[in-house]
Specification:
This protein is an alpha/beta fold. 38% of the residues lie in helices and 25% in strands. Magnesium ion (MG) binds at residues 7-8, 198. Belongs to the aspartokinase family.
């Protein structure tokens, strides 16, 4: 079996969905499992719904309408006849969402978040599955929540591999075109959970692992994995082959083309991961597999914007010791702040972090009781794997370098823009 993942960008409009059909015609669709994300920026639009809901904003209705309108337009463009059963199926899902919003009693933001954002994937797979049938390809629509079981850590749920393996091994039909949702799972009470933003790549890997799939292909709007994000680097080059290890490193440092959790299950079973263009599906793209680190061997650039550089120093000039450091890390964990770089000296400790959930203010209040806290906001973290002088010069040009850290294979540079 092959597992294909189509992300938000590939199904952002009717032309995108038609293109999925064309891709399947070209590469084959027998014995395939399609993992599909929410269309375009739907997850962001649903995040706005959740914000309005919690703020009791009068624009809640309008935010829901926005999501419905967007999908309705795609349906009209795809099916023309609004008597087609897909209209009802999608309407049904949105009614469920509205029912949830008007009846929910839980004050738990993360719980509500998962119940709401999941409609993005439920709707996209419903549309895609109906469209494939409309064009003559029979599909099996799978509710992924019956398969991927997780803990109840909403918004960042951990997979229960034992349960998930059993569910998938015994229930996915081979020889069919199966269609399922990325990003979602369910907890032991069958409430919807999500695996973290951009988690659909990971869903594809979970299925591949449990099915002993022959390969995973993630279809992207770029030719494959490149040595830099082509949105920010004009001369980015395609990497033909990268090892699992290198891909894990790149994803870990923030190359968003592959979700970092994707590689580990694939590497365990040596299942190759193809990253290919949904615009040119017959081009080779990149293969992530066992073997040489990088082919061609080039410096790889990763950019993380909007980082926070925090420096903690002891108030009384005492050393920052192991016990302080473990306490500091426990706090970062508790406040869900991700640490991307660490630098330690005798009396100070610097970390470059990402405050995805806006918790730094609260954390700062706790830290300030024990340490002198200084911070620089909106800095950029550059990582260069396999760096050389030219690569470093390129990054540093016209910028203020605040911190630099070098190891054998990796250079990290924190910069702020020159005013
Ligand atoms: P999806 O539609 O599957 O969610 P994403 O938008 O998350 O796809 O990932 C594709 C994007 O990843 C590209 O448009 C590109 O801007 C970005 N990207 C970041 N780093 C790289 C890289 N090293 N190589 C290729 N693309 C990259
Ligand atoms: N729809 C989810 C997101 O936008 C998951 C994904 O696209 O991978 O984060
Ligand atoms: Mg994405």
């Amino acid at each position: 079996m092959r597992v294909f993942k189509f992300g938000g960008a590939s199904v952002k409009d009717a032309a995108g969905i038609k293109n999925v059909y064309d891709v399947l015609q070209q590469v084959g669709y027998e014995d395939v499992l399609l993992v599909v994300s929410a269309m375009g920026k739907t997850t962001n639009a649903l995040e706005l719904v959740i914000k309005d809901y919690f703020e009791k904003s009068p624009s809640l209705q309008a935010s829901v309408q926005e999501v419905k309108k967007y999908h309705n337009q795609i349906l009209m463009d795809l099916f023309e006849d609004d008597k087609h059963e897909v209209f009802q199926a999608v309407q049904h899902l949105f009614s469920d969402l509205e029912y949830f919003l008007s009846h929910n009693k839980s004050p738990n933001y993360n719980f509500v978040y998962d119940q709401v954002v999941s409609y993005g994937e439920l709707v996209s797979t419903t549309v895609l599955s109906h469209y494939m049938s409309f064009r003559g390809i029979q599909t099996q629509w799978i509710d992924v929540r019956h398969f991927i079981k997780t803990d109840a850590n909403y918004r960042d749920a951990e997979v229960d591999w034992e349960l998930t393996k059993n569910n998938i091994a015994s229930n996915v039909k081979r020889k069919m075109l199966n269609v399922t949702q990325g990003f979602l799972g369910s907890d032991e009470n069958n409430f919807t959970t999500t695996l973290g933003r951009e988690g659909s790549d990971y869903t594809a890997a979970i299925f591949a692992y449990c099915l002993n799939a022959e390969s995973v292909t993630i279809w992207k709007d770029v030719p494959g994995v490149m040595n830099a994000d082509p949105r920010y680097f004009e001369n980015a080059s395609l990497l033909n082959q990268i090892s699992y290890r290198e891909a894990i490193e790149l994803a870990f440092y923030g190359a968003t083309v592959i979700h970092p959790k994707t590689l580990q299950p694939l590497q365990k079973k040596e299942i190759p991961l193809y990253v290919k263009s949904f615009i040119n599906p017959l081009l080779k793209g990149t293969v992530v597999s066992k073997g040489v680190a990088l082919e061609p061997y080039l410096p790889c650039f990763i950019v993380k914007r909007d980082q926070l550089l925090i420096s903690l120093s002891s108030i009384d000039f005492s050393f920052i010791m192991e016990e302080n450091i473990s306490e500091i890390f426990a706090l970062f964990h508790e406040f869900k702040i991700k640490v991307n770089l660490i630098q330690n000296s005798a009396i100070s400790f610097s970390v470059c972090v990402e405050d995805k959930f806006g918790n730094f203010k609260d954390l700062n209040a706790v830290l300030s009781k024990k340490f002198k806290v200084d911070f620089n906001e909106h800095v950029t973290l550059y990582t260069i794997r396999h760096f050389n002088d030219l690569a470093a010069e390129m990054v540093e040009k016209d910028k203020i370098v605040i911190l630099k850290q070098v190891s054998t294979e990796t250079m990290q540079i924190i910069t702020s823009e020159k005013q």
